[in-house]
């Protein structure tokens, strides 16, 4: 695609001495579902607020549909926004809250009523339409906010942790509903979340933020399997970071040595000999047996029961390695010596 | 009950007695049948209330108080609300700080000083001895109450709510009409009640700027005390107090109504 639908070009936002967003370049395509994932305070809300028009960038340009929007006031941007703290109008009923954007667009009463009802049904709140927001639970308020931002079918929907207050079951239901709406209406969605599994399941692409910068942007698969930095490897999913030193890089495979002198082969990656690196290996990719190419011996320190699987905490080569083990196997017990192994394809080298 | 709790109650009752005793002393005299303002009351009647509504000076002054009170309420509420909206931004500039102080100044400037100034100015602009003049003078001292009350509710309104309205397609005037003002309504109404009460018992400024035709109830009470003390003053005071209690009740009802709106963040 040539021109991005939403484009950030060298956008920075500074509050006093604090740089909250730092030279951000980001291109989002029409109809794409992009999640912004990052720790608290990494600037996600600020980026969303700049896109919605409530904060002006300190420098840089933001464009939507090929048009620079810096001068466009928020009410002309036609973006649905779900705010982090819901921002429902306390003096209006649930139905009036949802009808608000329709009345702003001059939608006739009969049609408005019908669309409000459909939106309420979507978020399963049909019975509560006459309540005031203060009479709703946090999760119910969140769903009203969602309905209000979607009812006028804007091209772009910005969501700031819209599912944070919901319980697991409802959250999964809403995730499916949002994905469905996204596909059905061709919405472009920018979705902020703390929850990495939510980002992995819902997004076309994920941007991982740290201190106002994008650490990595890519498909969930790329982010999970090939984290660009140690921060991303640790932030997304659970991983083992095994300290090692690069040894040699000859063609298809590179080799690294552990602190105890053991040598392992890793996937192809340009490494300088002597470079200090970390091997990121997901717990589910390590086998509690010596069947794979890279073998490490260790002692089981703890076995943790997780219902469908066990987690083994193993001391090996002066470090702690966590791995996932099926329950059906003859499970090791605490104190057992075990041999673990993983394939070079399943480990990923990141800078230390 | 421990000693501390007991002494708290005693002190509280003493303070209440201190505040209410003068009222308790004067009010029964409104129902006396005698022409003198003293105890004991030999027989009871409502003749002084009759006098209030039939005697020309009293009737006129009550009507004046209502005209001027309502005029002041409307003017002060509109101006004070606009001022509070304008002063809302948390800008730390000295200009804003100055403006904020300027709006509250009439509360601390001695009424006599204001009165002299207004009198001079009104003479110049032909406003002396006119209803408009008195309404303007009362508005000057009523505006701070509106500014304070409205500022307080505006402060409690989440900016996110107005942003949400904008993101849903509301232009700034619509945001004001559909979100900001409805949420500020309790503060605006209590500001209006304060403005009315201020106008009602204002004497000093009225002495300076009002002519004989704009004598208000408070002003009339003031002069009747000096000229001829009669129990009609006690009757007028009773009406005053009932009015004040009514205003306080309105405020309390509003406060209760306002709570749910504030609970949501
Ligand atoms: N108006 C403001 N003035 C000063 N600092 C601000 C302002 N708004 C945000 N910040 C700061 O900017 C940083 C980023 O805030 P932001 O709300 O964008 O974080 P976030 O990534 O959304 O965090 P969370 O996940 O907790 O919502 C924080 O350190 C915050 O204190
Ligand atoms: Mg945030």
Question: Can you describe what's shown?
Answer:
The complex is a heterodimer of chains A (352) and B (265). With 352 residues, chain A is of the alpha+beta class. In chain A, 24% of the residues lie in helices and 36% in strands. In chain A, helix 5 links the parallel strand 7 and strand 8 (188-193). In chain A, helix 2 packs across helix 3 (109-122) and helix 2 (94-104) packs parallel to helix 4. The radius of gyration of chain A is 24 Å and the shape is globular. The two termini of chain A are 35 Å apart. Chain B is mainly α. The radius of gyration of chain B is 22 Å and the shape is globular. Chains A and B meet through strand 6 and helix 2 of A and helix 7, helix 8 and helix 11 of B. Magnesium ion is lined by residues 44-45, 84, 160 of chain A.
Q: Element order, helices and strands of chain A?
A: EEEHEEEHHHEHEHEEHHEEEEEEEEE
Order of helices and strands of chain B: HHHHHHHHHHH
Q: What characteristic shape of chain A results from the CA principal axes?
A: globular
CATH superfamily of the largest domain in chain A: P-loop containing nucleotide triphosphate hydrolases
| Major sheet of chain A | 6 strands, mixed
- Under the CATH scheme, the architecture of chain B is Orthogonal Bundle
Query: What is the general shape of chain B?
Result: globular
The most extensive interface, with participating residues per chain, is:
A-B, 28 and 25 residues
Largest sheet of chain B: none
Distinct small molecules bound, one entry per kind: adenosine-5'-triphosphate, magnesium ion
The total of beta strands of chain B comes to: 0
Rg over CA atoms of chain A: 24 Å
| The top level CATH class name of the largest domain in chain A | Alpha Beta
Residue fraction in strands of chain A: 35-45%
State the oligomer. Answer: heterodimer
Give a quick summary of the entry.
The complex is a heterodimer of chains A (352) and B (265). Chain A is 24% helix and 36% strand.
